[in-house]
Amino acid sequence: MGLIAALPEIDKQKESVFVMHEKSEKLIPMHKHTKGQLSYVEGGLAYITTATQTYVVPARHYFWIPKGMVHELEVGSSATVLRSLYFYATDDHLNEFYTKLGIYPASELLIQMINYTERWDGRHVNHKDDNFEFLIALKKMLPTLNKVSLPIMLPKTNHEGMKQIISYLEKNVGNRLVLAEVSQRFAMSERSLSRLFQSTLQMSFLQYVKTLRMITAIELILQSSKPISDIAYEVGYSAVGPFSDAFYDFTLSRPSDFRKN
């Protein structure tokens, strides 16, 4: 059973954990669950789209989607396995972690624990099953593993003018992008453009450009064999050092280590 076919099955048992390990490239359209979703991306990239944001999940990272959140999930062609556990939500009120979408680097311990659940692939596991306590412990440990979600996301907007500006930034991510020049190109004052970013994206111009550069870099690192120096240049940095520092601030990993892992 594939993940799309399994969507109606996930919520059938309120107090169970539904396990799904899938090896494929897929786009799962907008949907939601009455359970919280823990998924580990093994290889490549995954993209989560909500009403307001698009999140990028690199290999060897996991994400948590809270119950009731409408989302679209796209698994890239090189994401060999998406390992997902859909947890009962009866205790989600006990910790704020379970109420927010988050992306986190996966420790070796968590990876091994998630891999162990493949024995239950495609089925519900509940209190009647042996080792259900293992899944309870896995869920309880999640809030203790990482305190801060990685900011690997770009906001969405329906504002037509902002869409044109975003398209321009995407096409010119490797070039000099400064507020004065971009505002002039779109016949706006710097103040007006700054306000437009804040009102439509809740993010400053500089924050958006930096995030766009970092997400583009993540995609290039994972989906190509280009040297890190070339990637730095392609996303608008003239030297590897500043690029590496910015990348580390964004992902908590150096570009070379990110590719190696």
Automatic annotation (TrEMBL):
<dbReference type="InterPro" id="IPR011051">
    <property type="entry name" value="RmlC_Cupin_sf"/>
</dbReference>
<dbReference type="InterPro" id="IPR009057">
    <property type="entry name" value="Homeodomain-like_sf"/>
</dbReference>
<keyword id="KW-0238">DNA-binding</keyword>
<dbReference type="Pfam" id="PF02311">
    <property type="entry name" value="AraC_binding"/>
</dbReference>
<keyword id="KW-0804">Transcription</keyword>
<dbReference type="InterPro" id="IPR014710">
    <property type="entry name" value="RmlC-like_jellyroll"/>
</dbReference>
<dbReference type="Pfam" id="PF12833">
    <property type="entry name" value="HTH_18"/>
</dbReference>
<dbReference type="InterPro" id="IPR018060">
    <property type="entry name" value="HTH_AraC"/>
</dbReference>
<feature type="domain" description="HTH araC/xylS-type">
    <location>
        <begin position="163"/>
        <end position="261"/>
    </location>
</feature>
<keyword id="KW-0805">Transcription regulation</keyword>
<protein>
    <submittedName>
        <fullName>Helix-turn-helix domain-containing protein</fullName>
    </submittedName>
</protein>
<dbReference type="InterPro" id="IPR003313">
    <property type="entry name" value="AraC-bd"/>
</dbReference>
